[in-house]
Amino acid sequence: MKKLMSGNEAMARGAYEAGVTIAAAYPGTPSTEILEHMVDYKDVIYSEWAPNEKVAAEVAVGASIAGARSLAAMKHVGVNVAADPIFTYAYTGVNGGFVLISADDPSMHSSQNEQDNRYYARFSKMAMIEPSDSQEAKDFLIEAFRISEEFDTPVMFRVTTRICHSKSIVELGERKEAGHKEYKKNIAKYVATPANAKIAHIRVEERLKALEQFANTSSLNKIEYNDTKIGIVTAGVSYQYAKEVFGDKVSYLKLGFTYPLPMDLIKEFASKVETLYIIEELEPFMEEQIKAAGVKCIGKELLPNIYELNPDIVAKSILNISNETKNVDIEIAARPPVLCPGCPHRGFFYAISKKKNAVVAGDIGCYTLGAMAPLEAIDTVICMGAGISAAMGMAKAFEVSGQDKKVFGVVGDSTFFHSGITGAIDIVYNKGKLVPVVLDNRITGMTGHQENPGTGKTLMGDETVQLDIVDILKAVGYKKVAVVDPCDLKAMNEVIDEAMNSDDTYAIVTKRPCILIKGLAPSKVKCEVKSDKCKKCKMCLKVGCPAVFFKDGVSYIEKSMCVGCEVCMQVCRFDAIEKVGE
Amino acid sequence: MKETKNILLVGVGGQGIILVSKILTAGLLKAGFDVKMSEVHGMAQRGGSVTTQVRYGEKVYSPIIGKGQADILVSFEKMEAARWVEYLRPQGKVVVNNYEIPSLPIAIGKAEYPKGVIEALKKQFSTTVIDATKAAEEVGNIRTQNIVLLGALTKALGLNEIDWTEIIRENLPEKMVEINIKAFQKGQEL
Questions:
Q1: Where are the domains of chain B?
Q2: Do both A193 and A64 map to the same domain?
Q3: Where would I find the H helices in B15-75?
Q4: In A476-571, where do the E strands start and end?
């Protein structure tokens, strides 16, 4: 049966066909839909949203040790979080096959950096496989599990946004039960003490040699000989771009198994072509190794190492050919992503933006958008969890240098469970004079509404305990935990003022669900500007709501977008905004 | 058909572009084409500029195109057409919904909604202007504007051998089928 599938859907299918029984992940674009589709096979695959990527990787590691074929999936920066268990699991080796899916985001469509995670395979000394379309995403994943078990190695399955979120035709196969491997207690293998790790490292180096030999003959690496004036070594989606540009006019060495590189095969291919190009996205990962092996080739001399490639860029860089284009001669306004109309985060950010001495450390999630104009209410965003712990460092630095600033450390509910909790503990333990703020909207928002430990539901749709953030903060030692509806600006203001003046450990939890949560009744109440009362002061525009604009000389609220959150109404000093439709 | 055709769908998050590309690709797949489609999720969704690319032909390699490669640009919003028009081949076609959604910089008065977009497009490209939003209102549900545009798109591409009403039936919940078929037909008439 043939089906049009995204790479993410195809990887879930591959896991199913490979006989995987355990899968864990933390949501992150572009990886999220891998586990969302894993639920399609919930009769045979246990899958979970872990609180963070490290936990996800460890759950999959444990499952693999216990004998299951298992995988963990995450976005590229998630691998940073999960690196600890991954590096050591590369030493111990596996029992049931283990695959780490790393979904990189060249061009940073939805990410804070565009790190090239292929280096993780080399760094941790594990095998790496890269598919170039959805069919390969499925088929190569099955092979990845076989390789993992044959060579006793974790396998990194490295994909990128254009693999994850592109759809192409997939021929489906049947599930082949892998059968759980027998679990045998093996202290020398699985207890990573220095004594055992010393022996393991020798094994790892031998394994790399064996993997390189295997790579030279693996069916994942393929040569397509055409005219031999130009030869191209490429992998992943870059192969598709190269094919698009050069078609059948040049020869290709298309690599699916990309670490360790099949150097004999590369040398053989290089010897048969006149000029060798390496076409790869982001860093010269293959190129540097190929050059170090003494093979003459051209790569990043011509191709950029910034942003994703496309056929246009490949053609321009290598052939110096550009498509003819035409443009229109008008100035176009930017259209940045924004907090939705009715977003509960808006109230908090509006209130805090008015506080002179407040410094706000933000985090990763929809609320990152609190940094955008006109709110501009966030000073920093670094990574998951830093909203609280970097805030601690800022507060300490201001304290040491005697600067009169009050630091607020802002995270969302899912991010709090991910790694905000540890920072919150640090503040209490080390007597930080700052205020952690958890913007609890009852869902993991930005990635498209995934369950988390606070929602009362699991990935597989089961009811479960609902962790209470207020209870957790109290339990770790916060003397005062204020709970407030962020869209009630007066209450929000009072809480912030109280927090700023408190000498006790003080935390704020804002509670209001994301307006996009399915099943919540859409509000019938809308806000409306009474144009005769509008004094054109534009205060209402300062809340940064996409439903509020200035039109024909007065403020105007687009009814189709308004959800009646009343934040704009509360900032209007002339009572020109009224509720309608009650 | 030897040559691969490239469709670029653009608009604003929430306008239903993903659904259109889903129906479009389902139809193309049924007609026996090789099909690739690329979309971007995540942060880009939140009211930001959204693009989806659909490529079809005998054999499609790249899921995405670069500048100067699209055969047709279907824009669900006026300003977005101007933003992405560079991706069209010089002889490419534009189908544009005559509908404005001000972006936040415009709403808060930091930027202005460009004037003369349609005229500028017409000067450079073969441009079809559609009042999809109005047509959708006439059909009875403003949210069917995306399917109105699908109707216009399939007509502009001459994809008439595909039974689109059947594809719509297969891809939408039953209670939404009839109104969307009406919207599709309306789009083909415009």
A1: 5-105+116-189
A2: yes
A3: 17-30
A4: 480-484, 506-511, 526-529, 548-551, 554-557
A172 and A154 within one domain: yes
By CA distance, what is A447's nearest residue in B?
B42
Which of chain B's residues have a Cβ under 8 Å away from the Cβ of A333?
79, 103, 105-106, 111-114
Q: Which of B62, B60, B50 shows the shortest CA–CA distance to B8? A: B50
Q: State yes or no: pLDDT of A64 exceeds 60.
A: yes
Ranges of chain B with pLDDT below 50: none
CB-closest option in B42, B65, B124 to A326: B124
Pairing of strands A70-75, A22-25: parallel
pTM, full prediction: 0.96
Q: How many CB atoms lie within 10 A of CB A3?
A: 14
| Buried residues in A109-142 as b, exposed as e (16+ CB within 10 A) | bbbeebbbbbebbbebbbbbbbbbbbbbbbbbbb
Whether A128 and A202 map to the same domain: the answer is yes
Per-residue confidence band for A517, with pLDDT thresholds at 50, 70 and 90 = confident
Q: How far apart are CA A372 and CA B81, in angstroms?
A: 24
Can you say whether the dihedral through the CA atoms of B57, B62, B68, B73 is positive or negative? positive
Please state the φ and ψ torsions of residue A516, each to the nearest 5 degrees.
-90, 0
User: Cα separations (Å) of A22 from A47, A51, A126, A450, A452?
Assistant: 6, 16, 20, 18, 18
Write the pLDDT tens digit of every residue in A200-255.
999 999 999 999 999 999 999 999 999 999 999 999 999 999 999 999 999 999 99
In a domain, A337, yes or no: no
Give me the pLDDT at residue B109, please.
85
Whether A371 contacts chain B with CB within 8 A: no
Both structure tokens of A209? 């040699």
Amino acid identity, position A294: G
Per-residue pLDDT tens for A336-361? 889 999 999 999 999 999 999 999 99
Structure tokens at A63: 């499952």
Residues A475 and A557 in one domain: no
Q: Which residue of B has its CA nearest to A7?
A: B38
> Which of A156, A187, A216 delimits the end of a domain?
A216
For residue A531, what is the domain's CATH number?
3.30.70.20
Residues of A in contact with B61 (CB under 8 A): 240-241, 243-244
Task: Of A148, A156, A77, A165, give the one whose Cα is nearest residue A419.
Answer: A77
Q: Total domain count for chain A?
A: 4
**8 Å CB contact of A240 and B62:** yes
ipTM score assigned to the predicted complex: 0.94
B67/A323 Cβ within 8 A = yes
Interface mutation target, options B46, B86, B87, B143, chain A, most CBs of A under 10 Å:
B46
Quick one: A234 and A120 in the same domain? no
Residue A417 and residue A485 in one domain = yes
**A–B: how many Cβ contacts below 8 A?**
200
Distance between CA atoms of residues A55 and A60, nearest Å: 9
pLDDT value, residue A394: 98
Predicted local distance difference test score (pLDDT) of residue A421:
98
CB contact under 8 A, B104 and A546: yes
Q: Tell whether A201 and A298 lie within a shared domain.
A: no
Rounded CA separation A253/A233 (Å) = 5
Please tell me what DSSP assigns to residue A523. P
Across the range A368-380, mean pLDDT stands at 95
- Which run of H or of E encompasses B166? helix B164-171
- Residue A210's domain spans which residues? 2-216
B5-105+116-189 placed in CATH 3.40.920.10: yes
Whether A52 is covered by a domain: the verdict is: yes
Residues A15 and A128 in one domain: yes
Of A237, A324, A340, the CB nearest to B46: A340
Put simply, the answer to whether B42 touches A446 (Cβ < 8 Å) is yes
d(CA A547, CA A527) in angstroms, rounded, equals 10
